[in-house]
Design a protein that fits this description.
Blueprint: E1 4-6, E2 9-11, E3 13-15, E4 29-32, E5 37-40, E6 59-65, E7 84-86, E8 90-91, E9 102-103, E10 110-113, E11 133-135, E12 138-140, E13 221-223, E14 230-232, E15 296-302, E16 307-309, E17 313-320, E18 323-337
Parallel strand pairs: 3-4
Antiparallel strand pairs: 1-2, 4-5, 6-7, 6-9, 6-15, 8-13, 10-11, 10-18, 11-12, 13-14, 15-18, 16-18, 17-18
Amino acid sequence: MGISANSRGQRPGVCTSTTLPVNPYHGQIVFETDTNTLKVWLGSAWSTGTFHTDIPPLSVDYLVVAGGGGGGTQSGGGGGAGGLRSTVTQSGGTPGTVENALVLSKNTNYSVAVGGGGTGGLQGNRGANGGNSSFDTITSTGGGGGGTYNGLTGLTGGSGGGGAVNNGAGAAGLAGQGHAGGNGGTDTNNINDSGGGGGGAAAAGQNFGVQAGGANGGAGRGVAITGALTYYAGGGGGTGHSVPGGATGQGGVGGGGNAGASTGNNPGNPGTANTGGGGGAATEPPHQGGGGGSGVVILRYPSGYTILIGAGLTGTTATVGSNKVTTLTAGSGNVSWS
C-alpha cells in the first residue's frame, strides 16, 4: 500500500486500523479511515498519529507600573503613584484605559526597565519623582514627588504629588496613567494645616480640609493579569503639622505609604515595593518623607513559548491556565521568546 498520485499531488495509502500494511517500509504513510488518523511507520512501530501543532501567535499582554514618587515633609504632600498602563481590564475608580496587546516575534530582543521609587523629601526639598518603567514601546511615567513646606507644590508625574501646607498645589497626573495630587492647606488652623494626598491610578489625592491632620492618597487600580486581582499605584498620604488628635493621611489602596502620624514628629512611610505606590509625607524635620515604591512589569503570553530573561533583570515565571506570566521586579535589560 504505497503512496499514489493524482492531479492534486501525492496521497497516502488508505486503510483501517485493522488492515495496516503487513510489511511496511520505513517512512510509509497511511491514513486510517475508521480513526481519521494519519500514521507513519517508524521502522519498528507505527506512530501514534500525534503531529506537531503550531502554537498561537506571540501576543503579549502587559502591566507596566512605574516607580512611585517620594513623600514631602513638614506638613508635606504625599508622593504620587507611578503611572499604570495595561492591556487587562482594571478595577476601581473611573474606568481605566485598556490597551492593545503587543504581537511580537520569536528570537527577538525586547527591552524592559523597572523604575525605582523616588526618595522622600527633607526640609526645603520636595520628594523626588519615581523612575519610569517600560516594555518595548510602552512607557509608564514615574510618580510625582510630594510638596514640602513652605508652599512648595507637588511634582507632575504618572500621578501627581500632593501639595504642602501654605497653599502648595497638587500636581497633575498623566491622562491614561494616573490622577492629580491633592492641594495643601493654608497654615491657619488644625483643619487647614495639612498636606494634600498623592494622586493614584484610580483617583485623585484628597485635598486639605477634609479632615484634621492629613489628606489621604488616591486609590490605585486592581489588575488580574497574574490570575489574582491585585492593586497597584496608590498615592501616598499627606500629613499635618503636629495636630493633636489629628487623623494620619492614609496611603491609597495599591501600595501607597501612610503619612507620619500627625501627633508628634514622625517620618513618612514608604510605598510598597513593586506596586508603584507613592511615599507618605513626614510631619517635621529632621524626619524624611517616605520613599516611593518600586514599579513592576508583568507579561502574559501563550504557554507554548519560553521566555529568556536577560542579564540585568530580576524576574520569575509561573503557568496560569493556558498562559505563562512573567513578573519582572527590578533592573533593566532584554527579554526574548523561543
